Amino acid sequence: MNVLIVHAHNEPQSFSSALCQLAEETLQGQGHAVQVSDLYAMNWNPVASAADFAERANPDYLVYALEQREGAKAKTLAADIQGELDKLLWADLVIFNFPIYWFSAPAILKGWFDRVLVSGICYGGKRFYDQGGLTGKQALLSVTLGGREHMFGEGAIHGPLEDMLRPILRGTLAYTGMAVLPPFVAWHVPYIGNDARQDFLRQYQERLQHLQSDQPLAFPRLEQFDERLYPLPR
Amino acid sequence: MNVLIVHAHNEPQSFSSALCQLAEETLQGQGHAVQVSDLYAMNWNPVASAADFAERANPDYLVYALEQREGAKAKTLAADIQGELDKLLWADLVIFNFPIYWFSAPAILKGWFDRVLVSGICYGGKRFYDQGGLTGKQALLSVTLGGREHMFGEGAIHGPLEDMLRPILRGTLAYTGMAVLPPFVAWHVPYIGNDARQDFLRQYQERLQHLQSDQPLAFPRLEQFDERLYPLPR
């Protein structure tokens, strides 16, 4: 397998960084090819703007997705976007490794989604969910957070973590056609000791060594909807 | 009322920008004081990093929320963060005006949440949801998106929009104690003509003129949970 790890933590010594390194080593140890995009180390620019397009289909009025489509076709996207897009298209598995900020991805990673998941290649028109441009690829979130596990789930104070992560799991990764594996979650990380951290590292390594037995999460399929995307009777 | 509008669109002529301007004019016309943070025009930096702290509680290991707490106390936060934080604390109502990117906020706005909603002031310890640091303030999302209205809701292809926006509505704004009003949504914006856009502008103006009759969305209250944040029997 070709594996891309997109890593987004601002402290190189963080536990999140340790998870990233463990994934790289474990997957390489299994014979996979691994590339890591360390967004902070790369000084990644997360802001989707007019500067992303060397040539503009419409220089007078920016419609970002339209310019993405044209720029991807003409290969005139900004070099940093094209570089990440090439890695993404090379990958069979993409791991997004990050600390939860506001029940979501840090802005530096959100801007990777905004800029790299270009219209016309990753999605577009009726090419989304199981018809998306990235079908055949797998995605895995590896996240750390401050909350305890009992604060998440049905009836818990924050509700199910998967519901909080819905715009990423479903609205982003499944939307582009990727098979989304259940997230790996390390709870309460800023407050736990070394033993608990070692446990999470062991759990993650175990998980990575058996990814082929993981069942992807279930999301809508276009065949359940009509031409105008109204639901068909079941 | 003091109103802060946080605006995040990369095209100054966009319909989203027209909504921003309409809100500014309408609310000023009603005698409210309005400030606008136009994040693209400000060249806002959305990346939460060590550079945000002139002095570090722990220079050897960055825990972002911890440094926020210390920096807010000592008033040593980066000037751009302090400036936005001052506006936020001044405001009675905060409007977040943006195009939906990946069922969420554009990265430039996500980074406003990451950097400006500082620990120790906006939340911290048991100060969240109805006990959050920003209780007494109201929040409103004003969003544009490409999808049609029938693609959202129970059983629809993307499910309810409020579920996609959960990390913002509940996980961010309600978490800090703000009363969150139902979002104003302009659907299918890139594909509609001028008449339909004028309709949305009229609807939004009407909405803004009667905000006092809006019912905030319902979210958890801490009294429903015990000391360890397990749910209490109802």
UniProtKB/TrEMBL annotation, chains A, B:
A Pfam family it matches: Flavodoxin_2
Alphabetized PANTHER family for the sequence: NAD P H OXIDOREDUCTASE-RELATED (PTHR10204), NAD(P)H DEHYDROGENASE [QUINONE] 1 ISOFORM 1 (PTHR10204:SF34)
Family recorded in the similarity comment: Belongs to the NAD(P)H dehydrogenase (quinone) family.
Annotated Gene3D superfamilies: 3.40.50.360
Listed GO CC annotations: cytosol
Alphabetical UniProt keywords: Oxidoreductase
UniProt organism field: Pseudomonas panipatensis
Domain Flavodoxin-like fold positions: 1-208
Entry protein name: NAD(P)H dehydrogenase (Quinone)
MF terms (GO), sorted A to Z: NAD(P)H dehydrogenase (quinone) activity
